[in-house]
User: What shape does this take?
Amino acid sequence: MTSPVNPVEASAPAHQAELWKPVLLRAAAALAFGAVTVFWAAPSETGMSWAGGAYLLATGAVLLWGIPLTGFRREASPGRTMSAAASVLTGAGASVLILQGSLLFAFVAALGLAAVAAAELYFGIRFRGRHVLARDWLASGVVGLGTAAALPFFTSLGPHALLGVAGGGAIISGVLWILAGLSLRHDARAAAARP
Assistant: This one.
């Protein structure tokens, strides 16, 4: 989904050549969590909280680490917005780890996922055609908002259903982000090979 390098993006700062690293780390976190949810037949509330909390924390940490690489400075307006959303996700992950329960997982995880998804959707629309990750942010934002909206409706079905919903969204976004990361890595290598 990531756009191929165009002349505007080719003149982007050199640190954006490393953008593929946090994108692939985010994909790895999402796909690892998704695999856990697929193969865990009978998770307990504690297990759900640990797995879900670790996923939210890892994703939030990767987003915070990758913000400068996207071309957004933390002190700039877009950087502040994405930092705030990633901080909400990280806080949601810590809360889910510490305070365990299906109801808490459903609503707190939904809040964290919705914060990041809304920021990504906004930046996907705002920077469409002007940023290499714009289309990926759009798709990820839609998937994240869908996952966040669905989670509270599965509270009564228990940990297996909640992990299934969260894991389904993680798998979809993980595949999206792995394709984006591999495309970015290929473009970075192609740009480095050009004289």
Q: What stands out?
A: Residues 102 and 155 are 6 Å apart (CA to CA). The chain is about 75% helix and 0% strand. Helices lie at 7-10, 20-39, 45-66, 77-98, 102-126, 134-150, 159-193. The two ends are 27 Å apart (CA to CA).
